[in-house]
Amino acid sequence: MSKHLPRLVLILAAASVLFPFLALFSAALQPQTELSPGLEWPSDPQWGNFATAWTTAGFGSLLKSSAVIALGVVPIALILATLAGYGLASMRLRVKEPLFAVLMLGMALPYEAIVIPLYYDLRSVGLLNSYWAVILPLIGLLMPFGVYWMRTHFESLPQELTEAAAVDGAGSWRTLTRVLLPTAGPALTTLGLLYFMWSWNQFLLALVLIQNPAMRTAPSGLGKFVQQFGQNIPLLSAGTIIVITPIVLLYLFFQRHFIKGILQGAVK
Questions:
Q1: Where in the numbering of this chain does the ABC transmembrane type-1 domain appear (predicted)?
Q2: CB neighbour list of residue 119: distance below 8 Å, 6 or more residues apart
Q3: 50, 238 Cβ separation under 8 angstroms
Q4: Where are the domains of the chain?
Q5: Is 0.70 topped by the overall pTM?
Q6: Which of 56, 65, 213, 224 is deepest in the core (most CB within 10 A)?
Q7: What CA–CA distance (Å, rounded) separates 244 from 251?
C-alpha cells in the first residue's frame, strides 16, 4: 500500500485541479436557458456560447489590453529585479540588510492601500487612462518579490564562480552577464511567468486607473460581464474560459522550465 501511496496522492491532486476546469467547460456548453447546469456533457453542445461571450463583452480589445500591460511589465520588471537582486547579493554595504528589509515590507503592502493616492498622482502627471497608468505601478508593486527571488538565486550560487571571474579581471557587469545570468534561466523563466500571470490578471488597478472600458484588462472586463449576465451561467463560464485560456497555454508551454525553477528554488 505504501508503495502506491505517492501515486495515489498525485492522482488525487491532479483530479482536484482538472475537475473544476472540466466542470467549467461543461457548463460553458450548456444552453443559455439552463440556470443550474450539471456536470454531464450536454447532448447538444452550444459552441456558439463562446462567440456570443466574445462579441458581447468585447474580449478582443480586453485581451489585447491585458497582453500590452503584461508585455510592458514583464521585461522591465525582470531587468530591474535581476539588477537589484544581484546588487543585494554581491554588495558589501552596512545598509544592505536594512535596505533589503525595507524592500520586503513592500510584499505586505496591499493594492487597496495605494490605489487612491496612485489615482491622483497619475492624474497630476497626465498618465491616467493610459496603459502606463497600470504598467508603472505594477512594476513597483512586483519588485519586492522579484528582488527577493533573484537575490536568493544569486546567493545560492557557488562563490567560486564570482571569485574566478574576478581573478580573470571581470568587472561586476561582465560577471553578471557572462557568468551568472547563464545559470539563471529557470529562475528568470519562473519569475517571468509569475509576472505575466499577475499582470494579465490585474483587476483593481485597471478598473480604477483606466476609465476607457476597451483599454481595461480581461479580468476587469469579465467583472463587468458578470454584472450584465449574472444569471447566465453558460455564458459566464464561456467568458471565464476565454480569459484564462492564454495563461493556461503559456503555462503548458513553459511548464518544464517553471517546475524546474520552482524545484531549484526549493532545493536551494
A1: 63-254
A2: 128, 208, 209
A3: yes
A4: 1-46, 58-159+185-267
A5: yes
A6: 65
A7: 11
